């Protein structure tokens, strides 16, 4: 698909929504009435589309966005990476809060296109990349991750890098008590109950915590 086709697909499959916790930010998201919410895996495969994680404002991303908008001094003037950025809500919040440079990373091309569209909608400038940045030497002052520990392989892939990066860079992760979160490598910062839907989370709220990732030590090596 061309960029125009991708943008048209996103517009057809979503509605403009403001998450209740972060009303400052408008996003192209799926709802119960949009086709992609109701789509089966078979339909997505026919369209060549990965599961649309980008079409939802997950609890971790919402907590990151809210915390940064409420505490802009934590991000103002800094270089920030929103890793596995989803819909881009945290990246957009960083830009609104005055970050000097914001990069949003998503390996799904459709997600990257959705992030760029959401950034335009909110009048902010982001750099969006499809690259898997795992293992990169950090070029940012702050790395943000929301809801990234939903599967064991994903956690195993990214967490050693995040802990290595934490030696020289602030690394934060916001998580709604996912099963594979390695809590012994984290320091809690703040916790909040975040509204969600039964269709998405099998619960009406998820207790979500923002953590600081602790760096690897010599004992961890």
From TrEMBL:
GO terms for biological process: methylation. One of its GO terms (molecular function) is protein-lysine N-methyltransferase activity. InterPro entries: Ribosomal_L11_MeTrfase_PrmA, SAM-dependent_MTases_sf. The lineage of its organism: Bacteria, Pseudomonadati, Pseudomonadota, Alphaproteobacteria, Acetobacterales. The keyword Methyltransferase applies. This is Methyltransferase. Keywords: Methyltransferase, Transferase. It comes from Nguyenibacter vanlangensis. The keyword Lipid biosynthesis does not apply.
